[in-house]
Design brief:
This protein is α+β, with helices and mostly antiparallel strands. It has one domain: 3-Layer(aba) Sandwich (Glutaredoxin). Helix content is 38%, strand content 18%. Strands 1, 2, 3, 4, 5, 6, 7 and 8 form an eight-stranded mixed sheet that branches. Helix 2 packs parallel to helix 6. It is globular.
Length: 240
């Protein structure tokens, strides 16, 4: 094997294993972390959708990052790119993790262009585009808790974390330490804005998803104590 091939495979190996190694180092060594809150329950399953890879995509038994790209996905290429670079690339090697983006029928051609924009050298094996009717996309969105609404193109920059039991995860109290010191009223974080790099990087990727994976890891080992949850689930209600 020549030196160029050795160098290429070595580089690819480092790029593949480094994110996984980074996350393993970040995982708490003890079980005294605070699990990610259930902010809403009863997220509906995908029905009447067609995937771009002809696979049956479901929420149950998966940790899902769910988003809505709309009729003109290229208008949201920055949001998609941030999602891939800051979240997908770090968690794509973990079991039962997926990114699912919903779009109305007719956006298929633009998605092929978008894929070329964001794919680079990594595969999108755990990244799925689902196409559906407007009403079916709205039905899924309306089953979520959100401060935002879909725009006229059925798009939003917000993405949502859905756990294996179809619960929406987030933060019931998203105050900073300074806000807590000043006794500011608590406010929730239901979703994550893909345009806000700091929110995606520091809250969603480095903290919230990491903690959720740790929770399921502890569940498998029988070490998870539900009494350590940040707070009880919010009662189901309509969008604010």
């Amino acid at each position: 094997m020549n030196k160029k091939l050795i160098k290429r495979y070595t580089t690819l190996g480092i790029l593949f294993f480094l994110p996984v190694l980074f996350l393993l180092m970040l995982f708490p060594s003890k079980h005294n972390y605070t699990p990610l809150s259930v902010v809403h329950s009863g997220v509906v399953e995908f029905q009447n959708f067609t995937s771009d890879d002809n696979k049956e995509i479901v929420l149950e038994d998966y940790i899902t990052v769910l988003g809505f790209l709309g009729r003109n996905p290229m208008d949201n290429v920055m949001a998609a790119s941030n999602l891939k670079e800051l979240v997908y690339n770090k968690f794509k090697g973990f079991k039962n993790f997926q990114v699912v983006l919903l779009l109305p029928y007719g956006a298929e051609k633009d998605i092929e262009i978008l894929k070329k924009e964001i794919k680079s050298y990594e595969d999108l094996k755990y990244w799925h585009f689902l196409y559906g009717e407007d009403a079916d996309i709205e039905r899924v969105f309306n089953s979520l808790k959100s401060k935002e609404t879909l725009d006229n193109d059925l798009a939003t920059h917000e993405v949502f974390i859905i756990d294996k039991d179809l619960n929406q995860r987030g933060r019931l109290d998203d105050r900073t330490d300074k806000e807590k010191e000043k006794n500011k009223p608590a406010y929730p974080l239901y979703s994550y804005n893909c345009i806000e790099v700091s929110e995606m990087k520091n809250k969603m990727s480095a903290d919230d998803l990491r903690v959720l994976f740790q929770e399921y890891r502890d569940r498998r080992k029988g070490n998870f104590d539900s009494s350590t949850r940040r707070a009880n689930s919010l009662k189901s209600s309509n969008h604010e």
